[in-house]
Design a protein that fits this description.
two-stranded antiparallel sheet; mainly alpha; single chain; ARM-like; about 1100 residues; cell division; 54 helices; cell cycle; chromosome
Length: about 1100
């Protein structure tokens, strides 16, 4: 009753007025970019529908006009336009307003039907707009699929399912940009509950589709999936972690790491995954990614603070303790260097926070934040809490590790000396006081545990050793006054000589490093240091044998008989020998005792030689290490003694000792070169080894290399294989030798084996080695080329080796061609002068194909495939180029059984001809037609005018101009049966609108110029009238006509004069069902995608730049 009364007061609006208002609303939003205008237009447009579209005829007019305008909005030759996006957003928000007011689904039904209709449009731009529209509907709709009452749901189940099917179809689109838009739209419903009655979504939900898009073949789609994925479960983080580690595109890795830094709680992944992520960020080649480490760790320490204190504050002072709490959730014991870098990144990020308030004195504010007596971290006021017996050793090691890194950061050279002094005063005591504290800590907790540790005690012992080393590492950052330095030196020698304190290799290395760097820094102090160490060893032995004295000053470098007798009569226990061996090992690793005199020789005979027969593997490893260090300084010792000990160890020792020996032999080769060490290693008596270069005896220098190859290919032991592979890589990167061909062949095949693909550590090592090896020099690339045939022969006979059965030989060959590409050597100018090594690889391939003849073999196809991707440059001799052309032509003539092989070889032959033309331009016109790789083709209607200048404006060649580029035009025209005397109108006199080259203006008869802006304004103003279409057609009819044209030029002209502009297509009557979509049948030229804009209110673009 009220509606009738209102109709008496308000006149009924006719259909034409409704359509004009709809057009005006869209135009208003199109030309504006502010939110108030959008809100006012939504109110007006919703009121128009609710109050004036009461009859079916009025609603039909409203929807027809809306469809008519949406057809225009979704047609474009360019990227998504923000103005058009605002218009689509207006329609969607109006639909929501109408539903909230009167509860009607009519507008949503219309939008769903529009998406279904345009889903399969030819133009990818239209398909992108469809995905955008579906995403807008999902993003601002409150969807409740589990609610049985559809009247309470903004989007009905039917519409929801239809839109989902549209997005799923476009998710599989062949166009990258369309798939990206579909992924972005699916992100709005990925967390919606799945309706069990909807089978399509049960098979693959929106969340599953986005997760699968992380493996899309296009990097842009993977990046969009990373940004869109809702990471609420542990498996979601693992998906993104996998991309951060293993994706081949660095940009994708960067985006994955950025997403993890923003949204990943460290509790959602395992400890190993946290360490791997930190290592990946630290080692990433992009500096922006490395800077994300601080952002990631800052979020992690905030989470650690919350878990520890249930405090959500992010004040920098409060978050300082989070850097300590974080160590509770990260295994710093086995990843010391990585966690050190992580802590430095955390401190640097905290420093940035303090810098905003404290400026240049931010480092003092950071030190002040850690200096409170009640602070959880150690500082000058509370460091003695390490002596508390109630604190577990694991927590003490974390406190000491954090304290050491905090002091190292605050006292680093990046800050001025005055600030470092102030920080030192806040964080650590004086050196003498600190030395007394460390000695007290050692007396309390450093006692040796002679009993075999139990399962839980072994971890405690490891943390105790780690804690002591961290305390010793703090000494170099203290004030080095005279009394403090003396107390420090006495403490270090006391640790070495005390039988109570347990010694191990890392502790002695740290002590020796501190002594030689700070107490005996000069070369002339080395002799004094040697006597000091000998006194310590004498003290250790004398406690076990009070009447013994190992060494004493000798007048020369030879051992006296009295000293030998003394050494032979000594009988010391195994712990004493182990302690002496550990001290001697630390001395030699310092690198300062490189002269083997009488004292070093006596220590070696007394300590090292008997240790080779000890039962403890750690003692034997220390003995091999000392022998290896002496061998590095003195090759005669290696020649006569040590190499044969290593050779026996490779055959008889256990795995841990073999690993140490592999590392030692690797260092020996780097010190003395491979040839000398290989001569020592050969299977013959030491006396038979040639000492002079004039010796003509030929030795098998590959025996050592074959031994390393055998270890590297061991499938049963991953650690041994990794150590041997790393050793081979070190050798090949250090020097260039012909023996490396066997090793390169082995490593190349090894990198594609299935067991190696399942070993991330070894796979990562090999995947990084080959690109680096190939980028070093052209000689390395030449070595890779020379092993091509050997690798292929091994793969042909792979049935004899079960480990190579799963290798894809085509992938191996293509990777080899990629690594030897000349583009890798762009930064090495001298090597580029010699030309690409692909010319040698091409010759190898063509000669092999020439010998095989016409054989349809899979390896023949691989050879042809590799030849088709080879890159040749101008740095090639004419003789070499002619030889390649002759070989390729001969192979093509003899090959007829496999068309696909011929096609690939023709690609390579065409590249050779192109190279010939570049080197000798005169040869282009003297080349026989049968050898020419360019085939003339008739122009099609889709060919642009610029692509066929000879047909659109022919110029007859001058007589005798045989060397001009257009000399064969008459033959081309004759083959195409075109009359050269026929008049062809010029481009300027014909209204041309090439389908793939949109214009910003349409020229008609050289008299009137209609820009797109004027066309669009008139389009919005006149509504349904077709004045523009009539004006264009009248202008076309007024075009001056020339003589009749036949042939392809005539077909081209007829087509261009009959083409409809996008405006014509949109201006068709919406009642016509034959071509309702209008411009959806137009194929626009694909344009480069700009930065994607998802927010509609973006700066307005001129319409003249977007329409044709």
């Amino acid at each position: 009753m009220g509606r009738k009364k209102k109709s008496l007061l308000t006149p009924v609006m006719d259909c034409s007025t409704i359509r004009e208002k709809v057009c005006s609303y869209l135009l208003t939003v199109y030309e504006s970019k502010d939110e108030p205008t959008m809100k006012r237009t939504i109110e007006s447009m919703s009121s128009l529908y609710i109050e004036n579209c009461t009859t079916e005829e009025q609603k039909d007019a409203f929807f027809k006009e809306l469809r008519y305008r949406m057809n225009f909005l979704t047609v474009s030759f360019k990227d998504l336009n923000p103005n058009r996006m605002r218009c689509l957003l207006l329609i969607v928000r109006t639909s929501v307003k109408v539903f909230n007011t009167v509860g009607e689904h009519g507008l949503f039904n219309f939008l769903t039907e529009f998406c279904q209709t345009c889903c399969d449009a030819i133009s990818p731009i239209v398909r992108r707009y469809v995905c955008l529209l579906a995403g807008l509907i999902f993003s601002i709709s409150v969807i409740n699929n589990q609610n049985d009452d559809e009247s309470q749901s903004l989007l009905s189940k039917e519409n929801y399912q239809k839109l989902f099917c549209v997005l799923k179809k476009r998710w599989l689109d062949k166009n990258t940009d369309v798939r990206k838009e579909a992924i972005h739209a699916l992100a709005n419903i990925q967390d919606d509950p799945v309706n069990p009655d909807f089978e399509v979504m049960m098979d693959c939900s929106a969340k599953d589709m986005i997760s699968l898009s992380l493996g899309d073949r296009d990097s842009e789609c993977r990046i969009e999936a990373i940004r869109s994925l809702s990471m609420k479960e542990s498996r979601d983080f693992k998906y993104v972690l996998k991309l951060a580690h293993h994706d081949q595109d660095l940009i994708v890795q960067k985006e994955a790491i950025r997403r993890l830094a923003d949204d990943m709680p460290y509790t959602m992944v395992t400890n190993k995954e946290r360490i791997d992520l930190i290592e990946r960020i630290i080692a990433h080649p992009d500096e922006d990614v490395r800077e994300m480490l601080g952002v990631l760790l800052y979020e992690w320490i905030a989470q650690a603070c919350y878990l520890e204190r249930r405090d959500e504050t992010k004040d920098p002072t409060a978050l300082c303790a989070g850097s300590l709490y974080l160590l509770k959730h990260i295994n710093f014991l086995d990843n010391e260097q990585t966690i050190e870098s992580a802590l430095f990144g955390t401190f640097d990020r905290l420093l940035d926070e303090f810098y905003q308030t404290d400026g240049d004195e931010a480092i003092l504010a950071l030190a002040e934040a850690f200096s409170d007596r009640n602070h959880a971290c150690l500082n000058r006021a509370n460091y003695k809490k390490l002596l508390n017996m109630n604190i577990q050793m694991k927590d003490k090691s974390a406190l000491a590790f954090h304290w050491h890194n905090l002091i190292a950061f605050c006292c680093s050279n990046q800050f001025p000396e005055n600030l470092r002094t102030d920080c030192r005063f806040k964080l650590v005591p004086s050196m003498k006081t600190y030395a007394e504290f460390v000695q007290e800590f050692l007396a309390t907790f450093g006692a040796m545990n002679n009993r075999s540790p139990r399962r839980g005690q072994a971890n405690q012992e490891s943390h105790k050793r780690f804690c002591i080393i961290q305390l010793l590492k703090i000494f170099p950052y203290l004030d080095q006054d005279q009394h403090g330095m003396k107390a420090w030196k006495e403490l270090l020698f006391h640790i070495l000589s005390s039988r109570v304190i347990e010694l191990h290799a890392k502790l002695v290395e740290q002590i020796t490093q501190n002594l030689m760097e700070f107490h005996f820094p000069k070369d002339e102090d080395t002799e004094v240091a040697l006597h000091e160490f000998v006194d310590v060893i004498n003290e250790v032995v004398s406690k076990a044998n009070p009447n013994s004295n190992i060494t004493r000053p000798l007048p020369n470098d030879t051992l006296s008989q009295d000293l030998n007798a003394t050494i032979n009569n000594l009988n010391i226990d195994v712990p004493t020998r182990r302690r002496c061996l550990t001290i001697f090992n630390g001395m030699m690793k310092s690198g300062r005792f490189n002269v083997v005199g009488a004292i070093i020789q006596s220590l070696f005979d007394f300590i090292v030689v008997p240790s080779f027969t000890l039962t403890d593997k750690e003692d034997r490893i220390l003995a091999y290490e000392v022998s290896g260090i002496i061998s590095i300084f003195h090759d005669q010792f290696a020649r006569t003694h040590f190499i044969f000990l290593l050779k026996n160890a490779f055959q008889l020792e256990i795995k841990s000792v073999k690993l140490a020996c592999i590392e030692i032999i690797g260092d020996l080769v780097l010190a003395h070169k491979y040839e000398k060490v290989a001569e020592m290693y050969v299977s013959c008596d030491p006396s038979d080894i040639p000492e002079d270069d004039d010796d003509e005896e030929v030795l098998n220098l590959s025996e050592l290399l074959n031994q390393m190859i055998a270890f590297s290919g061991d499938e049963s032991d991953k650690q041994l294989a990794f150590a041997a592979t790393e050793t081979l890589i070190r050798w090949m990167m250090a020097e260039h030798r012909p023996e490396w061909s066997d090793a390169l062949t082995h490593l190349l095949i090894l990198s594609f084996r299935q067991d190696v693909q399942e070993n991330p550590k070894l796979r990562g090592l090999l995947s990084r080695f080959f690109p680096m090896f190939a980028a070093v020099s052209r000689a390395n690339q030449l070595q890779l080329v020379n092993i091509f045939e050997k690798v292929m022969d091994k793969l042909r006979n792979r049935l004899l080796d079960g480990s190579m059965i799963s290798i894809n030989e085509e992938e191996v060959a293509l990777w080899l061609a990629k690594w030897t590409s000349p583009s890798i050597l762009e930064n090495i100018g001298d090597d580029m002068k010699e030309g690409s090594v692909h010319k040698i690889l091409a010759k190898i391939i063509l000669e092999d194909l020439d010998q095989r003849g016409d054989v349809d073999d899979h390896f023949v196809y691989i050879y042809c495939k590799v030849a088709s991707v080879l890159e040749l440059d101008l740095n090639i001799d004419d003789e070499e180029l002619d030889e390649l052309v002759e070989l390729c032509t001969s192979v093509i003539k003899d090959m007829s059984s496999a068309p696909k092989n011929l096609k690939l070889l023709n690609v390579f032959l065409k590249r050779l001809h192109t190279l010939q033309m570049k080197r000798n331009p005169q040869q282009q016109h003297n080349m026989p037609r049968s050898e020419s790789t360019t085939v003339p083709r008739a122009p099609s209607a889709t060919t642009s005018a610029s692509a066929t200048p000879s047909l659109m404006s022919p110029v007859p060649p001058e007589s005798g101009a045989e060397d001009e580029p257009g000399v064969e035009m008459d033959k081309v025209l004759e083959n195409l049966k075109i009359n050269t005397n026929t008049h062809v109108p010029s481009i300027q006199s014909t209204p041309q609108i090439p389908p793939k080259t949109p214009k910003t203006a349409i020229r008609i008869s050289n008299k009137k110029k209609l820009t797109v802006k004027s066309l669009t304004q008139e389009f919005f103003a006149r509504g349904r009238e077709s004045a523009i279409k009539r004006e264009i057609m009248s202008a076309v009819q007024a075009t001056p006509k020339g003589p009749p044209v036949t042939g392809p030029a005539a077909r081209l002209r007829n087509r261009t004069t009959k083409l409809k502009t996008p405006v014509d297509a949109v201006r068709e009557e919406p009642e016509e069902k034959t071509n309702e979509a209008g411009p959806l049948t137009t194929r626009p030229k694909r344009q480069p995608r700009s930065a994607k804009i998802k927010v509609p209110n973006i700066q307005e673009e001129n319409m003249i730049d977007e329409e044709a």
